[in-house]
Design goal:
Number of domains of chain C: 1
Helix content of chain B: 25-40%
Largest interface: A-B, 40 and 37 residues
Number of domains of chain B: 1
Structural class of chain B: alpha/beta
Largest sheet of chain C: 6 strands, mixed
Oligomer: heterotrimer
Strand content of chain C: 15-25%
Order of helices and strands of chain B: HHEHEHEHHEEEHEHEHHEH
Strand order of the largest sheet of chain B: 2-1-3-4-8-7-9
CATH topology of chain B: Rossmann fold
Number of strands of chain C: 6
Helix content of chain C: 25-40%
Strand content of chain B: 15-25%
CATH topology of chain C: Pyruvate-ferredoxin Oxidoreductase, domain 3
CATH class of chain C: Alpha Beta
Chains: A alpha/beta, B alpha/beta, C alpha/beta
Low-confidence stretches of chain C: 41-46
Mean pLDDT of chain C: 93
CATH class of chain B: Alpha Beta
Number of helices of chain C: 6
Structural class of chain C: alpha/beta
Number of helices of chain B: 11
Order of helices and strands of chain C: EHEEEHEEHHHH
Radius of gyration of chain C: 15 Å
Shape of chain B: globular
Chain lengths: 351, 251, 180
């Protein structure tokens, strides 16, 4: 397939359009505004809708509206904007609506800075909004993977009627890399949501009343348990991860997204020196590949987590390892990207 | 015969009994909306966005596709639905807390985009569902559970006149303030609701009807006293009238 | 196995980003793995902009580089900043039209290109980045001139397509300058 040199944010946008997304609502925020701008240019070309909302709060509710109308819809933002969207995401998950979010994470907390970070891990995977709900979270390491995961995210969202988040950062968002785009999905082949979506009764059926609201605790609990059983299916079917040079590894580096890629350079460096290191890279952050990672505790002497935060992702690694082996951590925060040499030096200290 | 014909339930109502307090005007306004939808023959394509507040149950009373938006966000949700399905008729039903406090940004910007949606805005000067707290439209001196000494302009500011703000916004195609305390009021209100829907259907822009309403329970008055109180106090602060009407121009 | 990691750095407006994008695109046309990463961090406010381009026969793990194999410095602050991290025996190409200070290190190869002067001689000050690109190509053979030409055609379309010719002239002039 023909490759194009694409920028991260624009590659994700184009992938969404190819996945059949024809509705995009957004609000400018660095470092993802190029995604919003790309959609503003591109949506009219494909007969889609682009709308810049008055705030992320409004945007997430526009997404709710389009999703409840049964159409593929997406928004993208960066950390502070994603915080503002949490209310809406909770309602979307409660009303069981399929849609796709992109968070191009930057340094926090608060206004923070505009450099790449991974410090929104808790918010993404442990629920940033209220109530018992889950976001399905995918994190790519390259632009090709970002394109494939974006398209896949729409399918997964439809399959489970649940919001899906593509969690990435400014490094991948701003980077350029050759990408081959899959063909456009045939819009007529998209999943049929007519059994629940709001489209007007057409005087042919009972009214569809879809919301996250239920005043009867017994009935709401039943509904919540149904959602939980759906999540069990997600855990069973949607775990994604990559194993890199793990076969004989005595040390397992665990990292995701951008870091999951950078640490492969560390492995290459270490292997030249005869150190048996490999990488376990979760691609789905929720569901987290606990069992798949845990398996390596039989072989590894220790696990080494690297992340662009002060230690969020490492908690899931510890849950997976269950104390069977030491779990070491190295990270930078505030938008500083640990470099291969820096991580390698830390690794040598640990050995 | 004529009597039963006139008073049979509108088709767009579900038939579920209203659960609103005695003397509350939600029921009257619900019925008027349903009658308008029937008369315009749009029941099959109308989608309702209910608010957070007493009308959170409104979906159940209408035989329409519907959802409930987060507090204040109904105009944004309706925008999403309408942009996804421009062939449908979409309306929001919102109270004064929902629309004029927490949802101020959403209502202003939906109106400013000339969003092809309709809003029915119930202004009863108080938060009903949460138990009688101050609303942005609470009158000066009025006692509520969060203004136990009466609303003071020094502490809480003045009652917010939403329609007077919205009338300056160019995306608005129909805008009026009305009440439903007398039969004449009811007839006028219905006409205005119809126009607010026509503004959308004819693609003219955003339509909103503000209805001054009672809340006997939280006002601590009987239904009849409430109507008198509304006439004597609310109408002074919130004058009745049509602020924008681009529907008539077209006709 | 061929591997190049180059940092192109200079003032905003000197075309350092385009330098990298054209190079990266040319590598893509040759079926190579490549990444283009713009600068982040305080250096953006320090008056310099930079990007890192990697060209490799193998999958590129880290797009972030500790020790670039080459540095192309368009101005003095960039040279001072990136000379330090250049790999041993790496190539430092400096824009001698604006940099009159000598690099400090002995264990690197230095190529001086009066890019602004050459660009001015060609009649367009804006193409100094392409003069530098020509020098880079000649010095590293990272990609072929043919691929660069294709990248220029891909990148400069519409009204800008008139500029392909002068850009190519600049690249060739830069190549020649290395021979001298």
């Amino acid at each position: 397939m023909e490759k194009v040199l694409a920028r991260g944010t624009e590659a994700i946008a184009e992938a969404a359009i190819r996945a059949g997304c024809r509705l995009y609502f957004g609000y400018p925020i660095t470092p993802q505004s190029e995604l919003t701008e790309y959609m503003a240019r591109r949506m009219p070309e494909v007969g889609g809708v682009f709308l810049q909302g008055e705030s992320e709060v409004a945007v997430v509710n526009m997404v709710y509206g389009a999703a409840i109308a049964g159409k593929r819809v997406m928004t993208s933002t960066s950390s502070p904007g994603f915080s503002l969207m949490q209310e809406g995401i909770s309602y979307i998950a409660g009303a069981e609506l399929p849609c796709v979010f992109v968070n191009v994470v930057r340094g926090g907390p608060g206004l923070g800075d505009i450099q790449p970070a991974q410090s929104d891990y808790f918010q993404a995977t442990k629920g940033g909004g209220h109530g018992d709900y889950r976001l399905i979270v995918f994190s790519p390491e390259s632009l090709q993977e970002a394109v494939e995961l974006t398209m896949y995210a729409f399918d997964v969202a439809d399959r489970y009627r649940n919001p899906v988040l593509l969690l990435t950062d400014g490094l991948l968002g701003q980077m350029m890399e050759p990408v081959s785009f899959p063909e456009f999905v045939d819009l007529d082949s998209l999943p049929d949501h007519s059994s629940w979506a709001l489209s007007g009764t057409g005087m042919r059926r009972e009214a569809h009343r879809v919301s996250s609201f239920d005043m009867d605790p017994v009935s709401l609990e039943k509904k919540n348990m149904l959602i939980q059983s759906k999540y069990k299916e997600v855990v069973k079917n949607e775990i994604l991860y990559e194993e890199y040079q793990l076969d004989d590894a005595e040390i397992v580096i665990v990292a995701y997204g951008t870091m999951g890629r950078i640490v492969k350079s560390v492995v290459n460096q270490a292997r030249e020196k005869g150190i048996k290191v490999g990488v376990f890279r979760p691609i789905s952050l929720w569901p987290f590949p606990y069992v798949q990672l845990s398996k390596w505790s039989d072989q590894a002497s220790f696990f080494f987590t690297v992340e662009m935060s002060t230690g969020q992702f490492v908690e899931d690694v510890k849950i997976a390892v269950e104390g069977k082996r030491p779990v070491e951590y190295y990270g930078r925060t505030a938008g500083i990207i640990p470099t291969p040499n820096e991580i390698f030096a830390k690794l040598m200290e640990l050995i | 015969m004529i009597y039963t014909e006139r008073f049979k339930a509108p088709q767009s109502l579900s038939g579920k009994e209203f659960s609103y307090c005695p003397g509350c005007h939600h029921g009257i306004v619900h019925r008027l909306i349903a009658e308008v939808i029937d008369e315009l023959d749009i029941q099959g394509k109308t989608i309702m966005v209910a608010p957070v507040g007493c009308a959170v149950f409104a979906n159940d009373f209408f035989e329409l596709d519907g959802t409930i938006a987060a507090h204040g966000r109904a105009p944004a949700v309706a925008t999403g639905i309408k942009r996804a399905r421009p062939e449908n008729v979409v309306f929001t039903y919102q109270g004064d807390g929902d629309l004029a406090a927490i949802g101020t940004a959403e209502i202003i910007h939906a109106a400013n985009r000339g969003e092809k949606i309709t809003t029915i805005f119930i202004n009863n000067a108080i938060y009903g569902m949460t138990g009688g707290q101050m609303a942005p439209t609470t009158l000066l001196g009025m006692k509520t559970t969060t203004t136990p000494y009466g609303r003071s302009e020094k502490n809480e500011g003045y009652p917010l006149r939403v329609s007077e703000i919205l009338k300056e916004i160019r995306g608005v195609a129909f805008l009026s303030r009305t009440k439903v305390t007398t039969p004449q009021d009811v007839i006028r209100t219905k006409k205005q609701i119809k126009k607010a829907f026509l503004a959308q259907i004819e693609g003219l822009g955003y339509g909103l009807v503000e209805v001054l309403s009672t809340c006997p329970t939280n006002w601590g008055l009987t239904p009849i006293e409430s109507m008198q109180w509304l006439e004597e106090n609310m109408v002074k602060e919130f004058p009745i009238g049509v602020f924008v009407d681009k529907v008539d121009k077209v006709k | 196995m061929a591997y190049h990691s180059v940092i192109s750095a200079g003032f905003g407006g000197q075309g350092v980003m385009l330098f990298g994008q054209i190079l990266s695109m040319a590598a893509m046309f040759e079926g190579k793995f490549t990444t283009w990463l713009p600068s982040f961090g305080p250096e953006m406010r320090g008056g310099t902009a930079n990007c890192t381009v990697i060209i490799s026969d193998d999958y590129i793990a880290s797009p972030v580089v500790d020790e670039p194999t080459e540095v192309v410095a368009f101005n003095l602050p960039s040279m001072l900043k990136f000379e330090k991290i250049l790999k041993e025996n790496g190539i430092l190409i400096i824009n001698s039209s604006v940099i009159d200070t000598k690099p400090h290190r002995e264990n690197i190869k230095v190529i001086k290109i009066p890019a602004n002067d050459i660009a001015e001689e060609l009649g367009n000050k804006m193409v100094s980045n392409m003069v530098m690109l020509g020098a880079y190509l000649k010095a590293t053979k990272a990609v072929t001139l043919k691929s660069i030409e294709k990248a220029l055609q891909e990148r400069l379309t519409g009204k800008k397509s008139d500029l392909i010719k002068i850009n190519l002239e600049a690249i060739k002039a830069g190549m020649k300058e290395v021979v001298k």
